[in-house]
């Protein structure tokens, strides 16, 4: 299965630049096809990172973008997700004063880590239930909302 980007949308994006006045059909086609191939390459690399899991998630794509120098231009657009605690630690290391309202005390830190573990466990249980439910459905039905199909 191969997905195609809408050429009219690509043409609109190209024309949004003040440097471009006219765009030929051929150039729009080539740019569209190049974008499709780029997306396919990025998705395939991210899929390899999942160790052949059934789902491709944001974190997989973000890991590829942040580890491969080819995608350096996307690092600000597709950053790795970090927790608030990690963000605060980074800001502290860089000497940025964010105020006392955002500091995390050690007691809050330990209780929040327990809460995070519980939340992760609940998310895993929900994901497992969803997986079990979807397996019980007719094999011909599929949900495209969480799954990216690769050729």
Derived structural class = mainly alpha
Instruction: Determine the fraction of residues in helical runs and give it as a percent range.
Output: 55-70%
How much of the residues is beta strand, in percent?
under 5%
Number of helices: 5
Q: Which descriptor suits the 3D outline? A: extended
Largest sheet: none
**H/E topology pattern:** HHHHH
Average pLDDT taken over every residue: 77
How far the N terminus sits from the C terminus, by CA atoms, comes to 6 Å
Low-pLDDT windows of residues: 132-147
Number of strands: 0
- In angstroms, what is the radius of gyration? 21 Å
Explained architecture:
The protein has 151 residues and is mostly helical. The protein has helices at 7-15, 25-49, 58-67, 84-93, 106-136. The protein is 56% helix and 0% strand. Residues 111-130 have a biased composition (Acidic residues). Its main location: nucleus.
Summary keywords:
single chain, 151 residues, mainly alpha
């Amino acid at each position: 299965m191969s997905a195609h980007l809408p050429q009219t949308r690509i043409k609109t994006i190209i024309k949004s630049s003040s440097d471009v006045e006219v765009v030929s059909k051929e150039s729009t086609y080539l740019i569209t096809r190049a974008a499709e191939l780029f997306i396919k390459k990025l998705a395939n690399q991210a899929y390899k990172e999942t160790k052949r899991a059934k789902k491709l998630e944001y974190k997989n794509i973000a890991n590829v973008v942040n580890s491969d120098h080819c995608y350096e231009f996307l690092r600000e657009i597709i950053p790795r997700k970090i927790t608030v605690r990690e963000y605060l630690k980074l800001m502290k290391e860089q000497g940025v004063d964010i105020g006392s309202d955002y500091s995390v005390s050690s007691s809050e830190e330990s209780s929040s880590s327990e809460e995070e573990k519980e939340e992760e466990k609940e998310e895993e249980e929900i994901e497992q239930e969803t997986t079990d439910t979807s397996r019980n459905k007719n094999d011909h039905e599929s949900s495209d909302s969480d799954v990216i199909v690769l050729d």
